[in-house]
Amino acid sequence: MKIAASEGPALLAALVGGDLPDADGRFGPFGGRFAPETLMPALSRLEGAAREFFADGGACEALDRERRQWIGRPTPLTRAHHLEEAWGAQVWLKREDLAHTGAHKINNALGQAHLALKLGARRVVAETGAGQHGVAAAAACARVGLPCSVYMGVLDMERQAPNVQRMHQLGAEVVAVDKGDRTLRAATDEAFRTWVADPEGVYYLLGSAVGPHPYPWLVRELQRVIGDEARSQFAEQAGGLPDAIFACVGGGSNAIGLFHAFLGDEEVRIYGVEAGGKSLDPGENAASLSAGRPGVLHGSYSMLLYDDDGQVLETSSISAGLDYPGVGPEHALLQALGRVSYVTADDSEALESLAECCKLEGILPALEPAHAFFAARRWSAENPGKRILIGLSGRGDKDMPTLTAVGRVS
Ligand SMILES: *Cc1c(COP(=O)(O)O)cnc(C)c1O
Fold first, then answer.
1. Residue 21, preceding bond cis, omega within 30 degrees?
2. DSSP 238-260
3. 292-325 per-position pLDDT tens digit
4. Where are the domains of the chain?
5. Which segments of the chain have a pLDDT < 50?
6. Core-most of 23, 235, 245, 369, by most CB within 10 Å?
7. In sequence order, which residues have a C-beta less than 8 Å from that of residue 211 and are 6 or more positions away?
């Protein structure tokens, strides 16, 4: 979707200035609140509580202390000297892999757990596909002292058995969903249903910058710490601003968290990298922005992969965290405005970049950010000598079974 040239600059200025989403939860034409009537009051209450939370100096200070003492923030900005030699660029990595539980997801989970306390919720529910968000939610709920139930499809529970064990160990209840597609979609429906049944007692802890308003905005506000830190670390350690920044996009939370601080810096090129999977043919990727069309999924109008009959397409990606047919509405707007370019890296390219980062930097990245590494290398071959910042969203220990299965580990 394209936005009229006359409207673009005003929308971008509103986004940078904090005036989007608007009162209806819209990022330009995208976003909104497509949810059952029964949930509207709960969504409004959540939005009000979140706005109060961010305006409350004491609450923000308490969260900030937990970010430092429990998550381990600020995460470092690491210069990657050997990648630089190989790529002919200056390369810096924002190390969310060093955050507690091994990825950026904890920033969101901890913030929303604090919000759940503020709302007086008695328990937290969350949905999870690959299990990473479930683990982050379980850890954050344990930390703030709230019971946590994680809904998970039975097929995903089989595929992600180690994460199910981690959630149990962290004290969460894992609710097996043996309905529908028996994966993330069915688990999301069940978690939603639990919330609808008791919107005051239950807090629904959503895992990415997707869903009905206020979630895309709320998750962005909790993840923007990545870019706020990186922007000042880059100024201090490298001087000035990067020429280009890269992050992988599944639902879009780590990417929007890194990008947001740089949206107003015209000279900084910004790239979101989606999962190209096996190919860009329907059903063989998870590239909602690169290969999708506008539509409604999980409460929000955004870019989406669906067929001519309106059926949401199967997705395919070697990285479970990117394997989602939709994407957050703020990314859809940034694409329509031309402010961020969305590109893809496929399964084998991600595997290649994962191996390169291990060998040259002694860092095992998750398969998700390995997509961003590949796109950054490709870009630096065309734009030599530039300064590049990459969002390293998580560590790859969780991907060892996948690497073994595809024969990348002996
Ligand atoms: C879940 C996950 C992602 C994808 O989620 P976003 O909301 O798009 O950030 C990316 N990287 C890692 C390491 C993840 O665990």
1. yes
2. T-S--SEEEEE-SSSHHHHHHHG
3. 999 999 999 999 999 999 999 999 999 999 999 9
4. 31-67+105-219, 74-103+224-405
5. none
6. 369
7. 298, 299, 300
Structure tokens at 110: 């901890």
Q: Is the CB of 250 under 6 A from ligand 1?
A: yes
Nearest CA to ligand 1 atom 1: 321
Q: What is the pLDDT of residue 410?
A: 58
Q: Give the residue numbers annotated as catalytic, written as ranges.
A: 105, 127, 393
pTM of the model: 0.97
Q: Which residues of 266-277 are buried (b: 16+ CB within 10 A; e: fewer)?
A: eebbbbbbbbbb
As beta bridge partners, residue 344 has: 274
Looking at CATH, the fold of the domain delimited by 74-103+224-405 is given as: Rossmann fold (3.40.50)
* CATH among 3.30.70.1450, 3.40.50.300, 3.40.50.1100, 3.30.450.20 for 31-67+105-219: 3.40.50.1100
- Measured from the Cα of 208, ligand 1's closest atom is 7
CB 185, CB 177: distance < 8 Å: no
